[in-house]
Amino acid sequence: MENLIDIKGVTHAYKTDSGPLPVLDGLDVAVPEGTFAAVVGPSGCGKSTLTRLVAGLLKPDEGEVWLHGERVKGPRKTVGMAFQNPVLLEWRTILQNVILPLEIVAPSMSQKDREARAHELLDMVGLTGFDDKRPSELSGGMRQRASLCRSIVHKPEVLIMDEPFGALDAFTREDLWQTMRDLRAAEPFTCVLITHDLRESVFLGDQVIVLSGRPARTQYVMPIELPKDRTLDILYTPEVADMLHVLRDQIKIAQGREPEVY
Amino acid sequence: MLRQIGIPVASVLVFLGLWELLVWVNGWPNFKMASPSDLPPAYIRYWELFLVMGWQTLWRTVAGLALAVLVGTAIGMIIGFSRIARDALYPLLVGFNAIPKATLVPVISLIFIGQHDFNTVLMAFMISFFPIAVSVGIGLSTLEPEYRDILRSLGASRFTIFRKIALPKTLPEFFGALKVSVTLAFIGTNLVEIVSPHGRGLGALFKSGETNGDYPLMFAVLIALAFLGIVLYYAVVYLEKIFAGWAERPQG
Questions:
Q1: pTM for this one?
Q2: Beta carbons within 8 Å of A143's beta carbon, 6+ residues apart
Q3: CA-CA distance, A98 to A115, in Å (whole number)?
Q4: The complex's ipTM?
Q5: Are the Cβ atoms of B156 and A85 closer than 8 angstroms?
Q6: Chain B residues within an 8 Å CB radius of A136
Q7: Domain at A1-78+158-262, CATH from 3.40.50.1010, 3.40.50.300, 3.90.1150.10, 3.30.420.10
Q8: What is the pLDDT of residues B38-68, one digit of tens each?
Q9: In chain A, which residues have their Cβ closer than 8 Å to the Cβ of B165?
Q10: Where are the domains of chain A?
């Protein structure tokens, strides 16, 4: 299978008052088309930098980022982004918020077609009938659902998510994992998810990439060979428990601590 | 509806009642302090002057305010988007704003001799643009990067990002500043009207009341100014409801 995202030897440093702060050091990531890559790593290890590189919002100091066989040199219309903060526009209704990317990417599309596309997604994530509500009238989980709709409304090749479920309570988070799984079954996008939650990475990912502490490089890659239509129950199987254990130890190594002996 | 109109009206009536009582209890003559009951005769006697002068004060204040909105927003955009411009302009803006505007009346009336309307509009503008510039600047410079990124990652231009996100997001701050600027602009207008010889507008009417020892007229002018201020303030509130009503949270 062709890699949709290829990050080769990317090194990047931020300029600060006290000299350059290296965040990425020879990072390699490969994500085959149509698959889901979950990226985990210690806090502040440069995971968010990775999302900005793939989105073309940032140019790496060294190395290359390839998307669909083309070198990434700037932002492109085939990318969707979602953040921990749903960043919905308070002055727009939910429907208008979801439509926003289409106004940029497909200016010639008719308003009727835009609304039809938005409705299709809102129905899929369980927000039927919330068209005319303002973001402030929705709960945190519902806002994040709307934000997900907005990030894929223009049918991007790649969906980049930076801890989208990080601020939600545990039950809402699990609901959204299932929503995410269903969206993926219906839409063909390739996905990069930055997360701190190992269970989330295993439930959603086709591979889990562990980054080392700052400056980050690829420390460990775990392929997840579980059925596509996995349910939450799978998280309680011994097989998954073993995976989580291995990942946990890798995080410890990334944090520069000794793995626990067991 | 009853509450929205009834409560403000009632509070004004109570205020007038207390004022009347204060004057009556102290037995002040009206050259010390006129009472509300002295005002209707003044309005009846000079109603034509009040209409003409009131209109002059109003249009020049609104013109100055309009100028303040245009220039203030432009300066706000410059300091909001460019850190260098912010560092360069802030000391100048703060310094200019710290100058008591009364000291500028003789300066501008010497530069633009006889241009009474222009001078008055200019003063209303100078005194009222600062809050608008600062709030628009802060609104734009504190825009969370994620807001920009959702459109920037799609290749949207800077102008599109400004029009679709930065501008609407700054509107609540803008209207907050405009409410402050409305009352400031009246101060600017009246400063010129009172200080310049042969002035026009309500300020000049106040001055003539002073010259003629017509104290009820002076108080009547003050109340008329307060009335105009309230009218213009609520005009801004009305516009805010239309353009930035989304920022108002329902009260729980």
A1: 0.79
A2: A86, A88, A135
A3: 9
A4: 0.78
A5: no
A6: 246, 249
A7: 3.40.50.300
A8: 889 999 999 999 999 999 999 999 999 999 9
A9: 89
A10: 1-78+158-262, 86-155
